[in-house]
Amino acid sequence: MKARHRLETLLVRTVRVLVRLLPMPAVRRLGHAIGRVSYVLDGARRRTTLENLTHAFPGRSPRDQRRLARAVFGHFGGLLFELIKFGTWPRERMLAAVETEGEERARQVLQSGRGALFFTGHFGYWEIHAVAHALRNAPISVLARPLDNRRLDAMLEEIRTCTGNTVIQRRGAVRRIMRDLAAGRGIAILIDQHLHEADAVHVRFFQRQAATTSALAAIALRTGAPVIPVFALPLARGRYRLIYEHPVEPPLADAPESVREFTQRCTDVLEMYVRRHPELWMWMHRRWREAGSGIGDRGSEGTRHEQSGTLGSPIPDPASRKADV
Question: Whole-model pTM?
């Protein structure tokens, strides 16, 4: 194991011991404080965050951009600490910490027997949403890309599966998704990562072209599975609101560019939530990588590390020859 991975593992194990001793509101405050420290120390991600925020909200002053960037780092520090704390709770305590909005929409579509495609982004408390969903409804399958650090990945998978969910890795993902949908199971997918592969479609996200996975739309059009946007927002006293939006209406399956149009509709819903709560989205991700822009042009090693270290995973289009490799 690399020295960096050993240090990361030691730090997370220390955090896990510490958060057991603290109530969730204190864990959130501590995580926010650590996140704001990382804003000062991590110059590369700070610069990416500020650059992205400047493009997305050009009307904001530089001072306001910096304030928002600090809040973003604070949120993601809190997210990590709170997820670790949440994973230590018994099921009854998890249930007591969440409230829902629109949950009947999810139950309705799952009763159809076609399964459901739940999508979100690296926004709010998406990991906690998936864990809590399984307690209030049937367990789901979660698409995920493994972390570089195998021990941390094992810890994260333990949290993700503690309420009955299963994790689907990229290899063989499409076959597994099709099988689970046929069994009436829900699938959780993140759609807000830059995708290098040929099966990406380019859609508008904050008025800029963003390479986005086409798999969500392609699978929905192929199977007829309903597509439901889901979001998890923080509440006071260390609690959470789980939101299930109205299903995204698909275009006609035989319409020209139906996959791109469907992907755009889903991306529009995500953008709506990010605009409402910009401090809750992962602006330090190099989402926009236009040719010649200089954005994200830091070499193949940096790109590889970022993609394999993320908490979610795009998947290939089911029509692609790489879909089941």
Answer: 0.88
